[in-house]
Amino acid sequence: MTDSIVEPFLKGNTGRNTRGILRLSILCLIAAAAIASRLFSVILDPWFNFRATKYLVANGFYDFWDWFDDRTWHPLGRVTGGTLYPGLMVTSGAIYHALRALTIPVDIRNICVLLAPGFSGLTAFATYLFTNEMSTSPSAGLLAAAFMGIAPGYISRSVAGSYDNEAIAIFLLVFTFYLWIKALKLGSAMWGALCALFYGYMVSAWGGYVFITNLIPLHVFVLVCMGRFSPRLYVSYCTWYSLGTLASMQIPFVGFLPIRSSEHMSALGVFGLLQLIGFVEFVRSGVPSKQFTTLLRGFVLAVFTIAFGGLVLLTVSGVIAPWTGRFYSLWDTGYAKIHIPIIASVSEHQPTAWPAFFFDLNLLIWLFPAGVYLCFLKLADEQVFVVVYAILASYFSGVMVRLMLTLTPIVCVAAALVLSHLLDTYLTMTSPDAPAEGASDATNGAAKKAIKQDGLRSMRSPLVGIYTTFSKGSVVSALTAYLLLFVLHCTWVTSNAYSSPSVVLASRMPDGSQHIIDDYREAYQWLRQNTKTDAKIMSWWDYGYQIGGMADRPTLVDNNTWNNTHIATVGKAMSSSEEVSYPIMRQHEVDYVLVVFGGLLGYSGDDINKFLWMVRIAEGIWPDEVKERDFFTERGEYRVDGGATETMKNSLMYKMSYYNYHTMFPAGQCQDRVRGVKMPDQGPVLNTLDEAFTSENWIIRIYKVKDLDNVGRNHTAAASFERGNKKKKTTKRRGPKVLRVE
Amino acid sequence: MHFLRGLLLSLLPVAALAAKNAPVDKFTKFQTKQLSSTPLKLDDAIYAQLTSAPRDYSSVILLTAMEDRFGCQLCREFQPEWDLLSKSWIKGDKMAESRLIFGTLDFINGKATFQSLGLQTAPVLLLFQPTTGPHANPEAGPSRFDFNNGAQSAEQVHRWIARQLADRPHPPVVRPINWTRGIAITTTILASITFLTVAWPYLLPILQNRNVWAAISLIAILLFTSGHMFNHIRKVPYVVSDGKGGVSYFAGGFSSQYGLETQIVAAMYGLLSFATISLALKVPRIADPKTQQIAVIVWGGIIFVMYSFLLSVFRIKNGGYPFWLPPFS
Amino acid sequence: MRWILSFLLLAFLATVQAVSSAGYKLLVVLEELADKSKYSKYLGDLEARGFSISYESPKSDKVALFTLGERAWDHVLILPPKAKGLGPLLTPKLLLDFINAGGNILVALSASQPTPSGLISLLLELDIHIPTDRSALVIDHFNYDTLSAAEKHDVVLVPRPDAIRPDVKNFFKGDGKGGEAIAFPRPVAQTLGNASPLLTPLIRAPRSAYSYSPKDDVDSVEDPFAVGQQLSLITTMQARNSARFTVVGSSELLEDTWFDAKVKRSVGMNGAPAGNEFKTSNQAFAKEVTGWTFKETGVLKVGQIEHHLNETGSEIVSNPKIYRVKNNVSYSIELSEYSWDKWIPFTPPTGDIVQLEFSMLSPFHRLPLKVAETTLTSTIYTTSFKLPDQHGIFNFKVNYKRPFYTNVEEKNTVTVRHFAHDEWPRSWVITGAWPWIAGIGATVTGWVAFVGLWLWSKPVPLKGAKGGKKNL
Question: What is the pTM of this model?
Answer without folding.
Answer: 0.81
